[in-house]
Amino acid sequence: MNRLRNHSSGPLVITTLIAVAVSFLSGCEVPIASFSSNLVFAKRLEIDSGMKMEPAVNETQSILAEMFGTPDQPTWPKLLSEDQELAGLVSQQRLTRAAGAVRSDQQDNHFGLFREHCVHCHSVVGNGVGPTSSFLNPYPRDFRMGIFKFKTTPKGKKPTREDVMRLLTEGIMGTSMPSFRLLKQDDLEALTDYAIYLAIRGEVERRLMMEAASELDLDKGERLLDPALKESAPDDYQDQLRLIEETVTKVAQSWTGAASSVTKVEAPPADYPLFGRDTAGSKEAQDRLGASIANGRSIFHGKIANCASCHGNTAMGDGQTNDYDDWTKDWTILAKVDPRDKEHIQPFLDVGALKPRNILPRNLRSGIYRGGSQPVDLYHRIVQGIDGTPMPAVGLKPDNPQGLSTEEVWDLVNYLLSLPYEHITQQSSQVPPYQRENP
Amino acid sequence: MSSTTVTNWPAENEPVVERSSFGTWLMTYVFARDHKIIGLQFLFSTLLWFFVGGMLAMAIRWQLAWPWQNMPIVGPMLFSGEGGQISPEFYTTLVTQHATVMIFFVIIPILAAAFGNYLIPLMIGAEDMAFPTLNMCSYWMMWPAFLLIGTSFFVPPYGAGAGWTSYPPLAALTESSPGSGMAQTLWLGGVMFVGIASMMGSVNYLTTIIQMRAPGMTMMRLPMTIWGMFVTAILQAFALPVLTAAAIMQMTDRLFGTGFYLPEMATANNSAAVSGGGQPLLWQHLFWFYSHPAVYIMILPAMGMVSDILATFSRKPLFGYRPMVLSICVIAGLGFVVWGHHMYTSGMSPVLGITFAAATVMIAVPSAVKVFNWLGTLWGGRLQLTTPMLYAIGFVSMFIIGGLSGILMASTPVDVVIHDTYYIVAHFHYVLVGAATMGIFAGIYYWYPKMFGRMMNEFWGKVHFALTFIFINGTFFPMHLLGAGNMPRRYADPYHFELFADMLPLNRFITICAFATMAAQLIFVLNFFGSLAFGRRVGRNPWNANTLEWSAPSPPGHGNFDFQPIVYRGPYEYGDPTCERDFQPQTEPSLDGKDRGLAHA
Amino acid sequence: MGKFWSLLFLCVPVLGTAMYLAGMYTSSGPLAMWFPENINPMAEEIDLLHDIILALSGVVFVATGLAIFLFMWCYECGCNKQLAKFVHGNHRVELWWTIIPTIVLVALAVYQFKVYADVRINRPMMAGADGVKGTADDVPEPASFEVMGRQFEWRIRYAGEDRLLDTPDDILGDVNELHCPTGTVMVGSLKSADVLHSFFIPALRLKNDMIPGTRQIVWFQADKIGSYEIVCAELCGWGHYKMKGRFVAEPPDQFQAYLQRLREKQFLREYVPAPPQPATDQVALDNQPTN
Amino acid sequence: MKTVFAIAFLLIAGGISQFACAADWADLKMTFVLKGTPPKPSAVVGKERDPICAALPILSESMLINAKNNGIQNVGFYIDTRNYKIKEIHPDLKAVPANKVVLDNKNCVFVPHVLIVRPGQTITAKNSDKTGHNCNFSGFFNNTAENFALPPGASRDKIIDQPERGVSPVDCGSHPWMKAYIIAQDHPYVGLSNADGVLSIAKLPTGKVAFRVWHENAVIDEVMLNGKKAKWDKASLELELKIGMNEYKVEVDAARFK
């Protein structure tokens, strides 16, 4: 972001001229030597532990570089590619395609896809602080916590590969994440791999730094992986090495395990009314739909799902609006810093955090559903909650006697789908005025 | 024409104030009220910005030729995070600022303000402008604009990025895009100051030209340059207030939550909804109501200057002086009623589009008349191919291309296809870089001896011309093909579209030509400054020209003329076979006492 | 030296014409680019109009270019030993070269009114209350699809069975992908969710801005099966260049099948683990023969 | 060298502990007292949105001081594994308690405010209020994040199966003032000060033991330890524990609190 050096300054002008000349002579490649460190997290740990985190940051950086390579030459860690189960998670070939500078070969295969399509928002390291990021609302995702919002697995679990792929193809309505569905399938696969790779790398980084901050006395020179021990105490060295490897394996395993934790969606009976499809159906279907929507409305305002407490009685997202998402809480609340406290957040902003913004409950009348507008998507959001946000998961019967039955969830889905067509003042159960003036 | 009165303001009558040498220097060169110093101040400022704007263009071309490649050396300095890639929002900043700088800081001020200031009193035989202090103010009003738009590079989001047209809601909703944050507000402030400066200038020009002509200098004896300036000043005086007001309205939309240009519930990028109630199209109408005439502001003075230069070096009278004057006036008049042709696809009523189309097509007629008259001037002359002459012919050549492609754009259905593609870019670059810049260079080479008392080096001038002419054509002619292929403007990376994927080689060619054009300007810079010290010293009239300024000393002192100029004839009496010399300065009475100035007309 | 300069100026009409001809008539190489194929019969006249204007201006371009060359060649003072012609102008010539362009341009203007009226003013009508088309009570045909521009994508929806937009039975389309049946006049509605966009399908010669707060109605007919690109032609922010969409023209039965697929997807109530089909498989349509 | 010592120490310590009797362990009692004027408890912001909570007198829990003896409540105190590696755990405490830890949503606050759990234990979150709550367990590093809605009368279990570094918050999205904290260390030597500011940890190993101190609203680095000024580097305190009861009194300056 060193953009402050203006074009009009003399030295810059001269260097530009030279640059132009040089560019004709050379192939004009400027490699990016390394991924940047997670300094925001380090800052939090520094406050939390009272230790200078710099040695741990540097050490983590070199351990990661050893395992995960550089932005120009990413590598899938050897220990993962040797593991049968984990090897398939990310392919080295796709990583190579997605990484590095933008270029294409004679067969029109594109390389450097991540830097062509993603870095401007998500940045080279995938921390969501690319040059464009500070202008976007919501901010681009930071992959490094390994948390993703829109997926088919419950909170706390990783998304499946298909979930990541879907975000790429569909984009995220209501945010600045565009759809990449017109890219080649190969390119999308490569980008998916690369995003997973960055997420794993970032999470390993956090865990190693956390390990260093809570188990080592860095001020006394203790290290995560002390090369001096290799000679003097090989067993200890092996222990340290094992710990690091276990961390990497554990993070990778959480991704491979995602597919098995997909939330099972209980489809309603085939004759169940559905908003939109049955709106103009038979009288009977319309009546059943009306009843379903009415029930959904009472669930929305009821205490079980408690939707109205955040989304507001109007469903316009004007309920509880003071909360923050987990990415923000990670360096504010967890570092005992009030996100509104300008003075105390400044050190974090200085190392690259973006100014905290409240996470707002969605305006459900806008017809924009970030996680997808199919009924099944809304079902997922309701029963899983949304990871990384204050949106809780509603309990399902029979596991939770106080929860909702699946039919009630579908009623709620019907109500949500009808909201964009409902008049704001209309709280009764009458059929909403669908017919609008058509241009 | 009414008889002209001469107001004599002898230098002795000015209050003599005892000043320290610093004070004298300050009042002579910084807060100067002498039109020549102000003209040169404008000239140097605009040439400096010309360079800045050129470098911005180079960055644009880099991205189009080597998309997402790391800019060597500069790239890592500016964009270390991405290894030196230009980021897409910086690309929008580049196109916006390139246009802003080139239009508001270069072409308009260099033509209307630099040449206008320098030449108007000299060419009409006046001692100074009508309002010297206002004149000084108009220059110093540019500085807030320079500073505001310069500063906009330094405040987030690092340069306005809503396009030079600043269309709302992109420009009016602060959250809508990078580039519409604080920088956009500063940008609007800059545009407002440019407007004020230009208005001050135009009032001055109008008064000066109407009131302060030398005895005998009737309106129909004015050189074309002055006619160009005169009509330009009218355009500025009537069109600019609209833009300035519109800019203030957009400013209040941004700062105080008014809704002139924002529809009800307008949001972008999840910003809070605006109460709105306005119309985005309103801005487009107001903006183009100024900015279309601005196109003529950017070309009419150059047309005038080129007419003078062509006649001088053809050694024969300008072909059809009266039709030339008339066509300038018609262009200006029609220029006020064709702004809608920028908006054929904007959602404005298509019926309205048709009326604009009719007026626009008609504007080709006076333009064609001018071209034919220039050709008529060349016909049968004794052409002296000096550097200014080459540039003037270059102007004609490029104006033909820019003008002809304009007919395609004037035609509504065709414009629907090529609107906002590189066809448009090619068209207005031919008019502005091709024609107007050629005119500027012609003017600089032509009046340089008058300004500094020395000639610019002819050899290097011609080398500069040849390179510039070749590479400008190389840069902008292929853009027509890009436009025919429908490549859109302001795309940081068009090649991911199948339609435009094949355009990379041609774009590389264009970029290389653009770099070469930029490099060729080094010759000009060296020649310009070198000639200041080493140029051949010349007397009053090195080109054997007729107009009044050549009878003043080179450079003219304070008060311009060391005698009272009295005008006996029109400015284009070259090659009269009945005379001894092939030129007859306007101030010299003819031997037979006959004034041939309006022999034809 | 005069010869050199006149030859330099000669290059402009010669190379310019050559480049244009190369663009028009070559099929490969860096210069081979021209208007993309037009599949909209309603817009055929646009191309014709373009060619007419181009031909006319081409003639003027070459003629004036040659004139400059000739004058420089003949009248350069080094070789022109004659005196300069001392003429201030010529009324008759002035008159002709004012009148002829005026006539040509007025003719062009009138012709383009007609073309423009076809593509932008005369909105397709459908039968009114009397059920017969072509009578006085015809009503404008309602829009059957809507494209909403949003930073930086196209969101598409189709009117459901009620043929009206903005009703609950609207069918949500795939993002960035507009399907239309061939051989049918399609009326669409354009709107914007945030800033100005411009909906541009080069193959249809269709371009119209999307203005927040208002709706724009466009119409066209796609006559050739295939997949074409949608381009954004109005600066809409940093991701302007990213607004790529796909326009798929397919036989009416395939279009109906596509709508049915969308409808099923829209009301999906079971989790389907397969990822959504990316648009690339539609490219296969490109090679199908025209019906 | 350090490692060699450590290994030697481990061998010796291990050998001793084989024969040691229960009386060789140390007990720790610490009293945390505020020096200075305790702040007035402030009412929470935003409760009026929920009519049920609005009717309740809810005060901010971020700093609970006993008005009688200035005791600081909810100070967490546990072994600092950076500076002290636990060699052995007292046999009585080795087993993870089987009971569930209850996290009640009562009167629009979490009760208790700070929970101490051992990995393997289960937290039962229940809602005794008439309004709906939710428990957002999102501050974990090792355990799975969860966020479930708790309708009135509901209770749900959350298994804590991994130890946590540091302290993890729990919050309720619809009532932003509601906060609870979980200390999940994989050893039993964790104390939490009660309403009098007293905490006790039983059956600790003897010798030099390092502890970390935690309070949700303070950085405790400078205190008066048994009347003497002491600097706690990195929120860590090393105590020389003797067999039997060890008592300390800690006075914390009010300035340490935000």
The coarse overall form of chain C would be elongated
CATH architecture verdict of the largest domain in chain C: Sandwich
Mean pLDDT of chain C equals 88
Chain pair with largest interface: B-C, 122 and 100 residues
Class from helix and strand fractions of chain D: mainly beta
Count the E strands of chain C.
Answer: 12
Specify the CATH class of the largest domain in chain D: Mainly Beta
CATH class of the largest domain in chain C: Mainly Beta
Q: Which second-level CATH architecture of the largest domain in chain D applies?
A: Sandwich
**SSE succession of chain C:** HHHEEEEEEEEEEEEH
The average pLDDT value of chain D, as a whole number, equals 86
Indicate the proportion of strand residues of chain C: 15-25%
Number of domains of chain D: 2
Silhouette of chain D: globular
Largest sheet of chain D: 5 strands, mixed
Spell the H/E element sequence of chain D: HEHEHEEEEEEEEEEEEEEEE
Number of helices of chain C: 4
Task: Characterise this structure.
Chain A is 44% helix and 1% strand. In chain A, β1 and β2 (110-111) form a beta hairpin. Chain A is globular and about 80 Å long. By secondary structure, chain A is an all-alpha fold. The model of chain A is unreliable at 1-16, 23-28 and 426-439 (pLDDT under 50). Chain A has a two-stranded antiparallel ribbon with strand order 1-2. Chain B is mostly helical. Chain B has 3 domains: 34-298, Cytochrome c oxidase-like, subunit I domain (Cytochrome C Oxidase, Chain A, Up-down Bundle), CATH 1.20.210; 302-536, Up-down Bundle (Cytochrome C Oxidase, Chain A); 539-601, no CATH class. In chain B, α2 (35-65) packs antiparallel against α4, α6 (182-211) runs antiparallel to α7 and α14 (422-452) packs antiparallel against α15 (458-484). Chain B starts with 20 loop residues before the first helix and ends in a 67-residue tail after the last helix. Residues 1-14 and 597-601 of chain B have low confidence and may be disordered. Chain C has 2 domains: 2-78 and 90-121, no CATH class; 139-267, Immunoglobulin-like, CATH 2.60.40.420. In chain C, 35% of the residues lie in helices and 21% in strands. Chain C contains 4 helices and 12 strands. In chain C, the strands form 3 sheets. Chain C has a 5-stranded mixed beta sheet with strand order 5-4-3-7-10. A 5-stranded mixed beta sheet of chain C has the order 6-12-11-8-9, covered by helices on one side. In chain C, strands 1-2 form a two-stranded antiparallel ribbon. In chain C, β3 (145-150) and β4 form a beta hairpin. Chain C starts with a helix and ends in a 25-residue tail after the last helix. With 258 residues, chain D is mainly beta. Chain D is 10% helix and 39% strand. In chain D, the strands form 4 sheets. In chain D, strands 13-1-18-15-16 form a 5-stranded mixed beta sheet, with no helix packed on it. A 5-stranded mixed beta sheet of chain D has the order 5-11-10-7-8, with no helix packed on it. Chain D has a 4-stranded antiparallel beta sheet with strand order 12-2-14-17, with no helix packed on it. At the A-B interface, α1 of A face α2, α3 and α4 of B.
